[in-house]
Specification:
The protein is α/β, with parallel strands linked by helices. Helix content is 58%, strand content 6%. It is built from 55 helices and 14 strands. A hairpin with a 2-residue loop joins strand 1 and strand 2.
């Protein structure tokens, strides 16, 4: 490894494979011998027994070259790391595919009148070749493993090579002997035999049969060795993580059921493929290796879609089994049929006693029957069975819960009074809420969120296992909330404009109509009355103060319904604190002051506010008085729990110095500009250097961990919240780290929980919420049991601080490589023998993205993060060390899911290319278009259906479990009506594209998605730039293949699925874009902006100001790829070879009159479209000849030249073969564009190959300019036509937001009853008052409105 790679600075550019990262530095300390050599300690007999042996040597270390030749794993961006780490999965799938093909070939040869002689002569080769699959994969594994592990011990490397040659290659030896013996028997005419005997008994055995038995035995033996996990320490380090073995039977049964469901589909796919293979094979009576080129190409094009279907369809059936198993496990854990009762408010009479016994842990006291009771059945009521302390404890707990509901405006004052318990004496008399009696009709509150929280409390009380624990004995908890630039609280400018309220506020009122009414009711009882008194007294200062109070409460109301830091801190501090205080008060009977002190000792909330030092600095661009005031408001309200950690920078003569600082409510205040207040740090810990080495979040968390004092860490994002009733289960959740009997005696390192998605606002918010809801419940429940494959997903997991910190922190921090930083905590825990658990009695709230761009940005970020995970040493070690059942579980629920998305998209293109190829081959001598049509029509439709069902069934099963059959059916119908399959198809393509692109080229970057409600319209240029490369270009390619396949009927199912996919890829960005069809003037403005963007020259900021810069950015993205992969052109060179054989067979030899005409005809028909490339090459060489005009050469006139030359080529083509030749040239053009991009990225601008680079870039830009100009004009014209249709914009708004666009309120017009004089004249045009007049006229803050409400 060279020094430059060691000094590589991680940034936006993809890191080379040999660049040193966090894991390389960490592994230095895994071996004393290695550490001694790296630190330059020459005394070999010296033992490093303590840190005192290490620290004195650190000052003399050459840090820039200390890792030279000591990197233990190369992070190579290619599919090779996946194939090496997970080779066992693909080995088994390859064996299954060829075994099924062999099975159907054997049976179909006997049924059809073809292939008998061929199979009799060469069938044994196909059978024996099945035993070579394991040796082939082992050879690939050893080559890749040796290449990816440069510092492997020499002895271990030699052992691997010897094992490969002497053991893994034994089936190859037996196959050669079998082939030699078969040839010898055929030449001799009689089979060779030998005799074995014992005493008087002897047997005559054919040598060929004995070799077959030996070959089968050796093949099975090598296969078993290949599928077994590897547990040895090949690096020979003193410390090497060893994984603990889990229970294998549950996972084995799960995957057995999955394979059982997958078998019918895979068998039918193999059946249709085998029929086509037999026909092709039978044409030429020889082995497969000696087939003519054209027949070999057809053989390959039949085999390729089958292989892609085999490798990608197992994941679909896994999700079917997840839906089934998750439903059964959930029904067992959540109470089964009792869930149906609780949904309707039935069975709530059991809640009081369970609260006392399972949450409060109060002793059970058996009371004697009251002799004064006249009815026997009175004793069956819970309020008569409970003791006085129990009844009082439940009364206080329940009333606190109802107060929380009212404080969040989930119930009205009337519902609060109806749901509350008045007193213990009243409860003894039976005066309890109707919810806890047999009269359950209309007992639940009207608000859906309030009903959900009550039902969740009842459901959680019956979840098993639920550990009993008292607050005084629980481990201490620190909640860590990373924050960068998220909104703390909303301010007036974000809710109101100069003319009225914003779309955000109006949509919030539409979605939370009942909660807004409850808020107005609460507002009317306090602040509004103060305003009326101020108006009556005509005191301007009092009026302004009252208006500020109303404004602050409205901003708080909006902040508690969006994804803000205030909502998170308020939920965690208030819910956790009140719940622990309530439990402690009744468990230990302590005074309230002592309870608060003990709770403060047990709970700490740390906000890792990375930018606090910048927002508090008036000289910094990020200075924000509003943010500072919001932080002070947090300290004022939640100061007894809250601390804020931040990173501070101090300029010094010797360079900048960085500190990790902590402030809390006890820190002294300092005044800065504009009267703002900042806090003086309580602690300042100097850091060794610039701390942001990764994407920011992981470094922010790790810098704040030092200030957490709890034994347990909870990772909470700034888009979450907690609930009081769920927080009552917090002691049981913390007790999971103390009681480990249910985990086989092991203390869990991570305990995960459910999440309630509260951001189901609008169509896209609902889709994202459904996806996260399914993952957080159904999928994680199945990952926990039976798969035992749950890792760490960031939040709201509880983590054992001691186990996690010794792994290097709560998350990894290498830029790019650790983009999904949270999951590595779970992977490292699993590699070190730790375990995770998942419980469903505790949950927190979570917000997801609610806009089209933000939702897809999140999926793009996760896909890129999984691609980077796939090349890490952690994933390779997981793949090699896990048991096979657990490996299947971990792989297919993590990176395998994204591999499957990429394979699904490639399957679509493969089927379409195969259909186009066989349709164009109809005029060939050996025509198999009918067989291809049968295979495509029978396989692709079912395959696409499995893809759709796999994304819908887990959600339907979970809704069926928790909400009932009617809700599940409605959710399915609602998803279909809201075009959820369109979004799912678009999302799948996006995930596959970003995963595959990052896997090949690297460059994963953190994408800030934003959490707000997307009501703004995205411009056409941004949509085109965001989704053209990932969706629209492939949609054009698939559409072209579909056009070329029209001569052959492939069935309505195939065409319907392909057209649906193409349409989804084209129209989704515009269909889900708010206000896309609002006015024709905006569409025309988009068109002008897009034309300016297309025609503008190269910009200094790539990808933003011009089409030229954006295309250059797409090319530079491939700089990290190998030259061979660049020339392959993303495997499109294989397609070129296929179409070349098609042209050679379909078009006969022409009789030319001259050599020149023959050459011209050969170039027109067989060669790629090179004429335009030749022109670009000549023009690019003009600057070398001194032509000044050539230096200003642009791709725009060359694009027009490309159109003319292409038209001339098409005109000169023979009419009878024009479709076939155009198909060939289209495929060649796609390959040439990919190859040109690879060459541009590979060659340096100033190198000796700069001329080739300039030619490739100029030619590629001119061709792509024609494509993008045509595509943009077509899409823009379609949008304009839809905009001109009346009502389209209203339908789209109703479609996206499930409501009509709220009306805008203007300035209030005074009526005749209002006085023209008085102190309220200056308030008439105030946007806040206009807002209340429009949306809450009955509670308008003016005496006149109260005396004469509208309509009276």
């Amino acid at each position: 490894m060279d020094v430059d790679s060691v000094k590589f600075k991680f940034g936006k550019a993809p890191a080379p494979a040999n660049a040193s990262n966090y894991d390389d530095w960490n592994e230095i300390f895994w071996s004393p011998k290695r550490l001694r050599r790296v630190l330059g300690l020459q005394c070999e007999d010296r033992q490093l027994s303590s840190a005192a042996d290490v620290w004195p040597s650190l000052t003399t270390v050459d840090w820039s070259s200390m890792l030279k030749h000591r990197k233990s794993h190369l992070e190579l961006h290619s599919p090779l790391p996946i194939m090496v780490g997970c080779y066992r999965i693909y080995l088994l799938q390859t064996l299954a595919m060829f075994s099924l093909l062999w099975y159907w070939v054997v049976h179909l040869v006997q049924d059809v009148d073809v292939g008998h002689q061929l199979w009799d002569d060469y069938g044994w080769v196909f059978e024996a070749s099945l035993g070579l699959i394991a040796p082939a994969w082992m050879l690939l594994f050893q080559i890749g493993f040796q290449a990816l592990t440069p510092c492997l011990a020499r002895l271990s490397r030699l052992q691997c090579v010897v094992k490969l040659i002497c053991i893994d290659m034994l089936p190859l030896l037996s196959f050669y002997l079998l082939y030699f013996q078969h040839s010898a028997d055929a030449a001799a005419g009689t089979p060779g035999t030998f005799e074995i005997g014992y005493r008087k008994v002897s047997w005559t055995i054919r040598i060929y049969d004995a070799l077959r038995v030996a070959h089968v035995f050796l093949s099975v033996f090598v296969l078993c060795l290949a599928l077994s996990p590897r547990t040895n320490n090949l690096y020979r380090w003193k410390f090497y993580p060893h994984m603990s073995r889990s229970r294998w039977l549950p996972a084995a049964l799960f995957w057995g059921l999955t394979v059982l469901l997958w078998s019918p589909f895979s068998i039918q796919v193999a059946r249709f493929g085998s029929r086509a293979l037999i026909r092709i094979w039978d044409v030429h009576e020889s082995t497969i290796l000696t087939l003519p080129i054209f027949l070999s190409v057809q053989f390959f094009l039949v085999l390729l879609p089958i292989a892609l279907v085999f490798f990608s369809s197992l994941c679909f059936f896994m999700y079917f089994v997840i839906a089934l198993v998750g439903f059964c496990v959930g029904a067992y854990r959540l109470g089964g049929l009792r869930l149906m009762w609780y949904r309707r408010g039935i069975g709530m009479a059991y809640v009081p006693e369970r609260v006392c016994s399972r949450l409060l842990n109060l002793p059970t006291i058996t009371l004697e029957m009251d002799p004064s009771s006249t009815r026997f059945f009175d004793w069956r009521h819970w309020w008569r069975r409970m003791s006085g302390p129990q009844l009082g404890a439940f009364l206080n707990t329940w009333n606190t819960f109802i107060k929380h509901l009212r404080a969040h405006d989930l119930v009205s004052d009337q519902e609060r009074d109806r749901l509350s318990l008045r007193s213990a004496e009243a409860a003894r008399r039976g005066e309890v809420p109707r919810l806890f009696t047999a009269m359950v009709l209309n007992a639940m509150p009207s608000n859906a969120e309030a009903r959900r929280r009550i039902v969740t409390l009842a459901r959680s009380l019956q979840v098993e296992p639920l550990l009993a624990c008292k607050v005084g004995r629980i481990p201490t908890l620190s909640v860590l909330i990373p924050h960068y630039s998220e909104i703390v609280t909303y301010r007036r400018q974000e809710l109101f404009t100069s003319s009225g309220s914003t779309d955000l506020l109006r949509f919030l009122i539409k979605y939370y109509r009942d909660e807004f009414k409850h808020f107005i009711q609460r507002l009317d009882q306090g602040v509004v009355r103060d305003l009326e008194q101020s108006l009556a007294s005509e005191c301007s200062s009092a009026i302004d103060h009252s208006l500020d109070d109303i404004e602050g409460m409205l901003c708080e109301w909006a902040s508690l319904r969006m994804q803000t830091l205030y909502r998170t801190v308020e939920g965690i501090s208030a819910a956790y604190g009140d719940a622990l205080s309530t439990l402690l008060k009744h468990q230990q009977m302590l005074p309230e002051e002592e309870c608060d002190t003990l709770v403060c000792d047990r709970l700490q909330v740390v906000v890792a506010m990375q930018q606090y030092a910048n927002i508090a600095n008036p000289r910094h661009p990020a200075y924000s008085p509003h943010q500072l005031s919001s932080v002070e408001d947090l300290f004022t309200r939640f100061g007894k729990f809250l601390s804020i950690a931040f990173i501070d920078k101090e300029d010094a003569p010797d360079g900048s110095r960085y500190y990790s600082c902590l402030i809390d409510a006890t820190c002294p205040k300092l005044l800065v500009g504009d009267g703002c207040v900042v806090r003086q740090p309580k602690f300042r810990v100097e850091l060794p250097g610039f701390p942001i080495l990764g994407h920011g979040k992981s470094d922010n968390q790790n810098c704040a961990v030092i200030f957490t004092r709890g034994e347990i860490l909870q990772m909470i994002d700034a888009n979450q919240e907690a609930y009081f009733e769920a927080s009552l289960f917090l002691p049981s959740a913390l007790q999971e780290f103390c009681a480990s009997e249910h985990l086989g005696g092991r203390r869990p390192g991570i305990v995960g929980f459910r999440e309630h998605i509260f951001s189901a606002v609008g169509l896209l918010g609902r889709i994202a919420a459904d996806s996260e809801f399914t993952f957080g419940t159904m999928i994680q429940r199945t990952l926990d049991w039976p798969l035992n494959a749950r890792l760490h997903y960031g939040h709201p997991d509880l983590m054992d601080k001691l186990q996690i910190v010794q792994q290097g922190g709560v998350s990894k921090g290498t830029k790019g490589l650790n983009l999904s930083e949270d999951v590595f905590a779970g992977i490292d825990l699993l590699l070190r023998g730790g375990c995770t658990a998942y419980r469903e009695y505790f949950h927190v709230g979570k917000g997801r993205d609610m806009g089209f761009m933000s939702t897809l940005s999140f999926y793009a970020k996760v896909s890129m993060g999984n691609a980077e995970q796939a090349i890490t040493r952690q994933w390779m070690r997981l793949g090699l060390h896990l048991d096979f059942g657990q490996l299947l579980s971990v792989f297919y629920t993590h990176i395998g899911f994204y591999v499957n998305q990429a394979l699904t998209n490639r399957s679509l293109k493969s089927f379409c290319f195969t259909a186009a190829f066989f349709a164009r081959a109809r005029n060939a001598d050996f025509n198999f278009a009918g067989l291809a049509a049968e295979m495509v029509s029978n396989c692709f439709g079912w395959y696409y259906l499995m893809f759709m069902l796999s994304s819908m069934l887990p959600l339907a099963a979970e809704v069926l479990l928790e909400e009932g059959l009617a809700a599940a059916l409605w959710r399915l119908c609602s998803s279909l009506l809201s075009l959820s399959p369109v979004f799912s198809t678009f999302q799948s393509k996006l995930m596959g594209y970003y995963f595959e692109t990052t896997l090949h080229y690297g460059g994963a970057q953190y994408i800030p998605t934003g959490r707000g409600l997307a009501t703004a319209r995205e411009p056409f240029v941004k949509l085109f730039r965001s989704f053209a490369a990932s969706h629209m270009y492939d949609a054009l390619e698939v559409a072209a293949f579909l056009v070329f396949s029209m001569d052959q009927d492939y069935g309505m199912g195939f065409y319907a699925c392909v057209l649906f996919t193409i349409t989804s890829w084209f129209v989704s960005p515009f269909l889900f874009n708010p206000r896309q069809f609002e006015s024709a003037s905006e569409i025309l403005g988009d068109g002008r902006e897009w034309m300016a963007w297309m025609l503008s020259p190269e910009a200094s900021e790539p990808g933003r100001d011009s089409w030229h810069a954006w295309q250059a950015q797409l090319q530079e993205m491939k700089r990290n790829s190998m030259l061979v992969w660049a020339l392959l052109g993303n495997s499109r060179l294989v397609a070129v070879l296929c179409t070349s054989s098609l042209i050679y067979v379909v078009i006969p030899n022409w009789s030319c009159h001259s050599v020149g005409m023959c050459v011209l005809e050969l170039l027109l028909v067989y060669a790629p479209p090179f004429l335009h490339l030749l022109v670009c090459s000549l023009l690019s060489m003009l600057p070398l000849a001194g032509c000044r005009a050539a230096t200003c050469l642009s791709h725009v006139p060359l694009a027009l030249l490309f159109v003319l030359i292409s038209g001339l080529e098409i005109y000169l083509l023979p009419a009878q073969y024009i479709a076939c030749v155009m198909f060939h040239k289209f495929v060649c053009l796609r390959w040439m564009l990919e190859a040109a991009d690879g060459l541009v990225a590979y060659f340096l601008p100033t190198g000796k190959y700069s001329t080739i680079r300039d030619v490739c870039r100029l030619w590629a830009f001119s061709v792509r300019f024609v494509r993008d100009m045509t595509l943009g004009l077509a899409l823009g014209t379609g949008c304009l036509l839809l905009t001109l249709i009346p009502g389209v914009n209203s339908v789209q708004t109703l479609f996206l937001f499930r409501t009509r666009r709220p009306r805008e309120e203007g300035a209030h017009k005074p009526d005749r009853t209002e006085s023209a004089e008085g102190s309220d004249l200056h308030l008439r045009d105030d946007p806040l008052l206009n807002f209340f007049r429009a949306f809450a006229p009955e509670y308008s803050a003016t005496p006149q409105a109260r005396r004469a409400p509208p309509g009276v």
